[in-house]
Specification:
By secondary structure, the chain is α/β, with parallel strands linked by helices. The protein contains 10 helices and 13 strands. The strands form 2 sheets. It has a 9-stranded mixed β-sheet with strand order 5-4-1-8-9-10-11-12-13, sandwiched between helices. Strands 3-2-6-7 form a 4-stranded mixed β-sheet. Helix 1 packs across helix 8. Bound molecules: adenosine-5'-triphosphate and the ligand O=C(O)C[C@@H](O)[C@H](O)C(=O)CO. The site of adenosine-5'-triphosphate has 22 residues, from helix 8 and helix 9.
Length: 324
């Protein structure tokens, strides 16, 4: 039976302040443009733009930033019924970005006492989650209680109701206490997920090691629930491993890169949308990679999310050179 929402994501919806002046360090950047940010928010905004019906679960501050986040997401086509307004004075996370050069970008996150990590389990509605086909879980939301328990509750509701759990590792060091804790909670979520998406470095965090090997990583995780594991390697592309042994490589498309952040979120939005629309893994990797190539050429992560038409146009323009 068709569900009301193709995808519901749980985690943070915050503010990005992206350097409006390029090719200089943060210290010399005087102006920033404001966008909605936060990896899981970016993913549902991207999926909405690609035509999916989406919802969001998260806590936002009771201030002008919270109002802006909710309004922007609603206008972007995201159902906000699962968004809770904080009543304890917690603030929005802020991400400042530095664009030193197309190769040298960094982000600086202000995440002390952020509202998103105060989402409580009792604020997560089972009835809302039951209306979704896919639940996207952000790893950062596992970094602190009570958000951690809220996410674990969401996962168990999804598991009990045959809702596909997609775990986006989304590792951000800022709110974690130590590497062991990351590994414990990442493993707990990963073992229950149907699909896991992360960079090689993020899988190393999950395993609490350095220099991990993709084959060993997937062999271990396939002992549990995952059916599909995607490991991203930046501009070198990505690898999708399916239970049963099939591996498919995704290649990066050429892009006139402005900045590198936003790649992962646009990739996830388009990959998940393509899979939901019935594309096979090889095609879904192309959609994800093409979306990322578009977003890295633009200034924001959320506002820059492409349409299906733009993605397919880029795929067709570069069909002859893809993977070459
Ligand atoms: N410079 C680039 N040019 C074109 N495509 C890119 C570039 N960087 C990344 N991509 C595409 O985006 C995908 C995801 O990128 P990456 O592995 O850097 O994820 P990420 O680290 O999660 O991204 P983010 O920087 O947003 O956190 C890659 O597999 C690739 O297809
Ligand atoms: O995920 C965040 O909180 C920050 C993002 O919104 C930011 O645009 C980014 O780093 C995307 O990779």
């Amino acid at each position: 039976m068709a569900k009301k929402y193709d995808v519901i994501a749980i985690g943070r919806a915050c503010i990005d302040l992206n350097a409006a002046e390029y090719n200089r360090p943060m210290e010399e950047t005087m102006t920033f443009s404001k966008y909605v940010g936060g990896s899981p928010a970016n993913i549902v905004i991207g999926a909405a733009k690609l035509g999916l019906s989406v919802g969001f679960i998260g806590k936002i501050p009771d201030d002008q930033h919270g109002n802006y986040i909710k309004q922007y997401m609603a206008e972007a086509g995201v159902n906000t019924d699962g968004m809770v307004v904080d009543q304890e004075g917690h603030k929005s996370g802020l991400t400042f970005t530095e664009i030193k050069s197309p190769e040298e970008c960094s982000i600086l996150m202000y995440r002390d006492e952020v509202a998103d990590l105060y989402l409580r389990p009792e604020e997560v509605s089972a009835e809302y989650i039951k209306q979704a086909s896919n639940l996207v879980v952000s790893g950062t939301a596992l970094s602190r209680s009570p958000s951690r328990e809220a996410v674990l509750k969401a996962i168990s509701i999804a598991k009990a109701n045959d809702i596909r759990v997609i775990f986006e590792l989304d590792y951000r060091p800022y709110t974690w206490t130590n590497a062991e804790e990351v590994s414990i909670y990442y493993s707990l979520a990963a073992r229950q997920a149907d699909i896991i998406i992360g960079t090689r470095d993020e899988f190393d965090m999950l395993e609490n090691r350095q220099g991990g090997d993709n084959d060993a990583t997937v062999a271990e995780l396939f002992k549990y629930a995952p059916q599909l594991i995607v490991i991203k390697h930046g501009v070198e592309g990505s690898y999708a491993y399916e239970r049963g042994g099939k591996m498919t490589r995704g290649f990066a498309y050429k892009s006139n890169v402005l900045k590198t952040f936003g790649a992962g979120d646009s990739y996830a939005a388009a990959f998940i949308t393509a899979l939901h629309n019935g594309k096979n893994v090889k095609e879904a990797l192309k959609y994800g990679s093409a979306a990322a190539a578009i977003v890295v050429s633009k200034h924001s992560s959320s506002e820059a999310m492409p349409t299906i038409k733009a993605i397919e146009q880029l795929m067709s323009e570069q069909a002859a050179t893809y993977g070459k």
